[in-house]
Amino acid sequence: MSVKFVPVQWTANKWIYDAALLVAVIAYIFVFVRVGNVAADVTRPVDGAVVRMRAFGSCAFFMLSFILAIGPLARLDKRFLPLLYNRRHFGVMTAVVATTHAMHVMGWYYAFSPTNPLVALLVSNTAYGQLLGFPFEALGIAALAILAVLAATSHDFWLSFMTPPVWKGLHLGIYVAYACVVAHVGLGYFQDAENPAFAVLYAGSAMTIAGLHLAAHLLKRERAASSDRWVAVAPARAFSDGRAVIVRVGAAERAAVFRIGNTLSAVSNACAHQNGPLGEGRVVDGCITCPWHGFQYRPQDGCAPEPFTEKIATYNLKLDGETVLIDTVANPPGTAVPPLSLPAERAAA
Amino acid sequence: MAALIVGALTVYAAAGVFNACAFLTVGIGRVSPAARGSYVFRALLIPGCILLWPYVLIRWLVLETLREGSPLPSHQPPLRVQQGFALLLILAVPAALATAVLIRQQPPMNAEPVQVAPPAGAGASAAP
Question: Model's pTM, two decimal places?
C-alpha cells in the first residue's frame, strides 16, 4: 500500500510470474527460429527473416489467446485465479512481442524503398471490397494499435486518472484486438500455410477461447437466474475469523462478507485500486487487506485508514435463523454499516 | 490518401509529445496527489500521454476546473458491457475461421501445365 506511485509494484510472486513468462517467450522464439531455420535453406521458399517474423507473430497470437483464456478459466474454476493476478504484465509483454513482429514485417517487406514504409504498407493492397486477397495487414495494424494503447495505459496511474469504469471499458478493447488478430492470421498466413500443425494450433486456440467465453457466459446466466433483493450467503457457523465468504449480488457484482471476531461486515469484492478480489484476502490489524497489493479497508465503512482515501461499497446484512442474508443493492462507497453480531453459539463452530 | 493518413498520424504524435511534456511536468502533480514527489514512474506514462493526448488534455481540464464532486461508481465496473464484448468474440472468432477456410484456395498439386489459347482475334494485335 502506497500513497505515491512507483514504476512497478513487484512482489515475490510477481517476480516469479514475470520471470517464468519471459523464459517461456524466449524459449518459444528460440525453438521456433531454430526449427524454422533448418527448413529455411536456399532451396526452400522461406527465408530466415520470414521465420523470425512468424516466430514473433505466432508467439503474440498464442500469448493473446492465453490472456483471454485466463478470465473465463478463473470464473469456471478458482484454481486458475493465481494466473489472473499478473495478467497486466502478460499483456504488456504481448504488446512488445507483437510490435517486434510488426518491425520484422516492416524491415523485410518495406525496407530499401524511396516510399515511406508506412505509406507503402497502406497502399500495397487496397482490395478492401473482397474477402479473397483482403488486406489482412489492416487487421494487424488495428490489433497492434489496440494492444499498444492497452499496454501504454496499464500503469496504476491510468486507472486512477481515468476512473475504473472508463479504464475497464477501454481495456475491453482486448476482445476487439483478438477478433482482429484471428482474422489477420486467417486471411493472411493461413491462406498459404501448408503445415497442418499450424492450422490445428491456430483454429484450436481460437475456438478454445470462444468456447471458454461461452461456457463462462452460460454459467453466469445460470447463477444470475435466481436473484432476489436479499440473498443467502452461508450459515452463520460457516464463517472463519478474519476470512470472507464471497457471494454473488447481481448479474455481475460480488460481495465479500468478512467475519471479525463475532461480527460480520460486507463490502464490495472489488478493491478500489485494481478491482482485486478482496474476499480472497484476510483481516490484518482490523482492516480487510487486498491480496494483490495490500490495500486496506475498514470493514464497517469500506474506507481505507488514514492517510489513504480509497473507498469501496458496503452491504447490509441480516440473519434469518441460522442463515446470513445480504442485501444485493450496494451502499455508496464509504457508507458506514453497523456490523452484524453473531450469537456466540452460532459463531463458535 | 495513405500519405495523408501517415502525415496526420505524424502531426498527432508530435502534438502528443508536446502534451506529454506539459502534462508530465506540470499537470500530473496538480491532478493526482499520489504523483507529487514521485518522478521515475512518469517515464512509463509517456506512451499513453502520446497515444491518448486529446483524452489526457480533456481529463486534465476537467480535473482542474470541475473537480468531480460525487464518487464515481468504482464498485460497479462495466462487467455487463464485458459480457457483450465476450458474446461478440464468441460469434466473431468462428465467423473469421469459417471465412478463412472457405476462401482458402487449394491449387491442384503436381498438375501438368496447360497451354492457354489467346482469345479469337487477339493474337495479331497483341504482338509487339
Answer: 0.72
